[in-house]
Design a protein that fits this description.
By secondary structure, this protein is α/β, with parallel strands linked by helices. It folds into two domains: 257 residues, Aldehyde Dehydrogenase, Chain A, domain 1; 183 residues, 3-Layer(aba) Sandwich (Aldehyde Dehydrogenase, Chain A, domain 2), CATH 3.40.309. Helices cover 36% and strands 21% of the residues. The chain contains 16 helices and 22 strands. Strands 14-15-16-13-12-18-19 form a seven-stranded mixed sheet, sandwiched between helices. Helix 4 runs parallel beside helix 6. The longest helix has 18 residues.
């Protein structure tokens, strides 16, 4: 199929889906087949400025829209997402590669945030203190801040956009979204449904592109806040550049998550959880589990872990029973394969080699099977770098405290987990571990939207999380009012030249 015969992805500017006038395009490719699904434009400077201008203009009226009217849009939106779940999952699998059940999970975890946004009436409430001084009351308002922007990654093209624009818009802001240029189709379908739910023109806008689009978002004076999920390199650039331009920024970045397995853990449940978290989505999750620390006698579980990993089925995401789909691109496949080779060269023991699996009918797909290294040390490249593929590093430790110290020495702090039957061990672990999101017998401890995503250290820049109660503070400005009303017959007292209220 030639590039001219495939559909082009549109921009969304001021409520209209617009064909870009750019000369720069990128193919959206099915990673299981290499079929070109669509062309995505790298928007021109004028188009990107027009999107921001539309959001700035729409903010004048949207910020004054009653909170109940905003909430009802998201009640309708969550209904539309539910009704279109199968279509959304199929789009996601075609362009990103993950299995259909995992694609539905991707959409569903974003849907949970939409449901949370529909509760904005209770989330965006201020505080009141009556009579803080003689006849003086103080109260706060949580007011929208203006045009906000989001930059989202390829690995969760439904969930992460839904982390961002629903909460920002529900708070009374307008939004400019830049999805990943690798897989924007499901994001654009979600945007269509958002307009169908009643989001007014200009309140949500979409641009596409690469470095120029990211830099425009960081630099544009009318954008007040930037939310980012992606690599550490790009996230650090976004945070520094946006912050220097006076914007709020929250950047969820790279990770190297660890799980500790104590010998008293439920063996079969633990092995199943480790494999699901390590190899699900072909390891392309910032909350994946690429490092497992086996403590004491649990080190004897390695052969069982390997044998169980061999039973996982590698195939296209649309095929029933698939456990591991393709990685997103040919370049991702090359990078992962190169890191596996480096691991061997640097002395790690390759106990399960998943390279070059045979996948009948999908010979051109970007497939890597489950891969397991043992004897991994902190100096090795496969430990230091985020592989973002189905590669598991196994480390041994003599004690729980040794394993905790090992994790705390890693610069990242996205997520961690402990598998045990001991409440005392779990209590000790959650107190001593220096990682933002902790699972106890839960391998991927991503919280539901009632709570905030709380990655820490090198995995996050900015002090407020991307959803939950924290993000309401991120997307609003707290205004504090201190007021006193005098009785009509109050003649007033002496002049008060002190700073105190009397």
């Amino acid at each position: 199929m030639t590039s001219s015969s495939v559909p082009s992805v549109k921009l969304l500017i001021n409520g209209e889906f617009v064909e870009s006038r750019t000369q720069q395009w990128r193919d959206v490719v099915n990673p299981a087949t290499q079929e070109v699904l669509a062309r995505v434009p790298f928007a021109t400077q004028d188009e990107m400025n027009a999107a921001v201008a539309a959001a700035q203009e729409a903010f004048k009226t949207w910020r004054k829209t009653p909170i109940g009217a905003r909430a009802r849009i998201f009640l309708k939106y969550q209904q539309l997402i539910r009704e279109n779940m199968k279509e959304l999952a199929a789009l996601l699998t075609a362009e990103q590669g993950k299995t259909l059940p995992d694609a539905e999970g991707d959409v569903f975890r974003g849907l949970e945030v939409v449901e949370h946004a529909a509760n904005i009436g209770t989330l965006q409430m201020g505080e009141l203190a009556n009579n803080v001084a003689n006849g003086v009351d103080t109260y706060t308002l949580l007011q929208p801040i203006g045009v906000c922007a989001g930059i989202t990654p390829f690995n969760f093209p439904a969930m992460i956009p839904l982390w961002m624009f629903p909460m920002a818009i529900a708070c009374g802001n307008t939004f400019v979204l830049k999805p990943s240029e690798q897989d924007p189709l499901v994001t654009m379908r979600l945007v269509e449904l958002a307009l169908e739910a009643g989001i007014p023109k200009g309140v949500l806008n979409v641009i596409h592109g690469g470095v120029d689009a990211v830099n425009l978002i960081c630099d544009h004076p009318d954008i007040k806040a930037v939310s980012f999920v992606g690599s550490t390199k790009v996230g650090t650039h976004v945070y520094n550049r946006a912050s220097l331009n006076g914007k709020r920024a929250q950047c969820m970045m790279g990770a190297k998550n660890h799980a500790i397995v104590l010998p008293d853990a439920n063996k079969q449940q633990t092995l199943n959880n480790l494999l699901g978290a390590s190899f699900g989505a072909a390891g392309q999750r910032c909350m994946a589990l690429p490092v497992v620390i086996l403590v004491g006698e649990a080190q004897n579980w390695l052969p069982d872990l390997v044998e169980k990993a061999k039973t996982l089925k590698v195939n296209a995401g649309i095929e029933p029973g698939t456990d591991i789909g393709p990685v997103v691109s040919c370049s991702a496949l090359d990078r992962i394969s190169g890191l596996i080779a480096t691991g061997i060269e640097e002395g790690a023991k390759l106990v399960l080699d998943g390279r070059n699996p045979k996948v009948p009918g999908y010979e051109d797909g970007n497939f890597v099977g489950p891969t397991i290294f043992s004897g991994v040390t902190t100096e090795m490249t496969i430990y230091r770098e985020e592989i973002f593929g189905p590669v598991l590093c196994v480390v041994n430790a003599a004690s729980l405290d040794e394993a905790i110290a090992f994790i705390n020495a890693n610069p990242n702090g996205n997520g961690t987990a402990l598998f045990t039957r001991s409440g005392a061990a779990a209590r000790h672990f959650q107190e001593e571990i220096d990682v933002g999101q902790v699972g106890i017998n839960v391998p991927i401890p991503v919280p539901v939207p009632l709570f905030s995503f709380s990655g820490s250290r090198a995995s996050k820049l900015g002090d407020l999380g991307p959803y939950g109660k924290q993000v309401v503070l991120f997307y609003t400005q707290t205004k504090t009012i201190t007021q006193r009303w005098f009785d009509e017959d109050d003649v007033g007292g002496a002049v008060n030249t002190t700073i105190t209220l009397k």
